[in-house]
């Protein structure tokens, strides 16, 4: 089944100039085109619904503020993704996030989450992927998780990922390989645990 992502138009330099001449309309167009996609991407980094909304809002505010600086040297999608990923990394580095993660660990160690407490973002990311695989990906360190998600879930090439993350393509390939190995290890230890049980 085709996803919403399939229908994104590509913008040439003229199209970009047109978008830049009317930022209010441009942001509306960009939100229609990429809103859900960016929200799912943000959720893959921040891993909770409330902060996903806040960070996604920041992403679109930044796009609005910086639209006139977009030169068209990369695709519009790559440019938007790099803004989103930078915002996510800022969030993850912030004291607020570290503090919140500690609190969540303390809470989840004393309460088990009900099966039906799945956020819309989790549901969207789980679509067409097994729940076990999704949870295993979400447990990977960010440097592997982001590349696995961009490569497999967002179907970007290692070249596009290298451009978005401003990182050498060889590093992307290495992290992709290591991320796959870590996934494999985690999935086989889950299976092993089930078999032994």
Structure description:
The chain has two domains: 11-116, RNA polymerase sigma factor, region 2, helix turn helix motif (Rna Polymerase Sigma Factor, Chain: A, Orthogonal Bundle); 128-197, Winged helix-like DNA-binding domain superfamily/Winged helix DNA-binding domain (Arc Repressor Mutant, subunit A), CATH 1.10.10.10. The protein contains ten helices and no strands. It has helices at 13-21, 23-46, 49-66, 76-93, 95-110, 120-126, 131-139, 142-153, 158-165, 169-196. The longest helix is centred in the C-terminal third of the chain and has 28 residues, at 169-196.
Shape category: globular
CATH fold title of the largest domain: Rna Polymerase Sigma Factor, Chain: A
**Mean pLDDT, all residues:** 80
> N-to-C SSE series?
HHHHHHHHHH
Low-pLDDT sequence parts: 1-8, 112-116
The first-to-last residue Cα distance is: 37 Å
